[in-house]
Amino acid sequence: MSIKIDSLDVMKAEMDIQERTRMLDTYNEIEEIVDRITKLSVFPSLVWVWAWDVTRDLYKNIQEGAEEEYCVCEDIEDVWQMFWEDADKNGFTLEYGAEALYEHVRDWMIDRHIIDEVPEDDEEEEVDENE
């Protein structure tokens, strides 16, 4: 019985070393990210990074068909330009949580026609008939 306990202790020690290594590697990576974010020339930089990440994620998901009723209407570079130009009036914040920021970014993207509803088949047929 003591052999099993000893080998379990060794396995646990190995797992502890792996977990500690992962923890330290993650710490170093996060420190690097924080250093880079704090050097950005925008304020509050974390909100900018998070809001742009949400924007980019929504854009890519819709572009890849995750929401069949929506399509992407702008290039990502144009989206960045709009994001930059609208920054002061958008008021993106983390104050109300990540979900509220997601909804705010999504509404902005719809308002700016970055994403739009896909025309229904009936509407497409009417346009074709009128041409």
Give the number of domains. 2
Helix run count = 6
> What value does the average pLDDT take?
89
- What is the number of strand segments? 2
Sketch the major β-sheet.
Answer: 2 strands, antiparallel
Distance between the termini: 85 Å
Radius of gyration: 24 Å
Question: Can you give a write-up of this model?
Answer:
With 131 residues, this protein is mainly alpha-helical. It has two domains: 39 residues; 90 residues, no CATH class. It is 72% helix and 5% strand. It is built from six helices and two strands. The chain has a two-stranded antiparallel ribbon. Helix 2 packs across helix 5. 9% of the residues are buried.
List descriptors:
131 residues, mainly alpha, two-stranded antiparallel sheet, 2 strands, elongated
In short:
This protein is 72% helix and 5% strand. By secondary structure, the chain is mostly helical.
Chain-wise SSE layout:
Layout: H1 2-38, H2 45-63, E1 70-72, H3 76-85, H4 87-90, H5 98-111, E2 115-117, H6 121-130
Antiparallel strand pairs: 1-2
Helix pairs in contact: 2-5
